[in-house]
Specification:
Blueprint: E1 4-10, H1 13-25, E2 30-34, E3 37-43, E4 45-49, H2 50-57, E5 70-74, E6 76-79, E7 83-87
Antiparallel strand pairs: 1-3, 1-5, 2-3, 4-7, 6-7
Helix pairs in contact: 1-2
Length: 89
């Protein structure tokens, strides 16, 4: 049985940086561009790292900033100041 986790963002400049960072940290993930949306899915776990986003943006980044662009998520969330993790427990 497949246990895909996913996150979907509005297709805007912030989300494009997020998608690039997520794919760098999760090379097994699948990125899908849909009308006005970017969806990233992976088997069992996706990790969004603050350090990777800061490298992409060239500035400090708070994990909470991401939530402005989120449309939907699938999976259990584990979040702290440095990571946003989606996984099935």
């Amino acid at each position: 049985m497949s246990q895909l986790v996913f996150i979907a963002f509005q297709d805007n400049d912030n989300a494009r940086y997020l998608a690039e960072a997520i794919m760098e940290d999760n090379p097994e993930a699948e990125l899908q561009h849909q009308p006005a949306m970017i969806r990233i899915q992976a088997e069992k776990r996706l990790v969004i790292n603050r350090d990777t986003m800061e490298d992409k943006l060239g500035r400090e980044w708070d994990v909470q900033e991401m939530l402005i662009d989120v449309i939907s998520i699938g999976g259990n969330v584990d979040e702290d100041d440095d990571h946003f993790i989606l996984q099935w427990n």
